[in-house]
């Protein structure tokens, strides 16, 4: 029984559109809140039973049709940590609960955006940690090493080797820098295995784009 079972997921949630910010079920996303409208959103979220905020990426294509300007699928997180800085900003942590599909934007009096959402089709998000039975961890870490090396990044390899499949794949999906559409593909992957396959494709593509000398 996941923590999401303690309450009914609401039909309307506050929306935080942020390009490149990816939240996935059971993963944690630290956020720095300082804009007045998002401070108001945080205040309202903390007063609610579920303390949910829906992370979603803007979609420039969706604006052309007179739409919301948002991707159709996002992920809601529960505010699990927050602290205030001396100058009135907040550092918060969202823990991913479930993905959702935007049905429509709700007109209202809040300074932040709210949407009617559907949770259907994402039941797996709430049913506990996923594993990836086809995961070649050694091969994956080798590829990751080349990627980090090519970009001058460092990693705590002991932690990466020990991390559960889901934590490893989802954390990297959230942390590595990819285009908005690529991040969206990682979010929408129907299973952990598909997300891992997508992640591998993106890393391989980035390595190829970095110059032929990177490829062994």
Automatic annotation (TrEMBL):
Lon N-terminal domain ranges (all copies): 13-207
Gene3D superfamilies listed in its UniProt record: LON domain-like
Stored SUPFAM superfamilies: PUA domain-like (SSF88697)
Family annotation (PROSITE patterns): LON_N
Name used for this protein in its record: Lon N-terminal domain-containing protein
Biological source species: Salipiger abyssi
């Amino acid at each position: 029984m996941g923590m999401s079972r303690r309450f009914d997921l609401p039909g309307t949630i506050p929306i935080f559109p942020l390009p490149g910010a990816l939240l996935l079920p059971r993963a944690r996303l630290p956020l720095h809140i300082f804009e007045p409208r998002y401070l108001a959103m945080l205040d309202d979220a903390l007063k609610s039973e579920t303390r949910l905020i829906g992370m979603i990426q803007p979609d420039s294509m969706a604006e052309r049709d007179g739409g919301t300007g948002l991707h159709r699928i996002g992920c809601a997180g529960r505010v699990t940590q927050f602290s205030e800085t001396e100058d009135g900003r907040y550092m918060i942590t969202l823990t991913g609960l479930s993905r959702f599909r935007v049905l429509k934007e709700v007109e209202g009096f809040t300074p932040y955006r709210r949407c009617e959402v559907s949770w259907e089709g994402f039941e797996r998000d709430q049913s506990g940690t996923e594993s990836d039975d086809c995961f070649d961890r050694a091969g994956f870490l080798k590829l990751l090493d080349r990627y980090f090396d090519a970009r001058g990044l460092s990693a705590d390899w002991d932690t990466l080797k020990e991390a559960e499949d889901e934590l490893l794949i989802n954390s990297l999906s959230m942390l590595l820098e990819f285009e908005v559409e690529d991040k969206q593909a990682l979010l929408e992957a129907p299973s952990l295995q598909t997300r891992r396959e997508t992640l591998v494709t993106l890393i391989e593509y980035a390595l190829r784009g970095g110059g032929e000398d990177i490829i062994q």
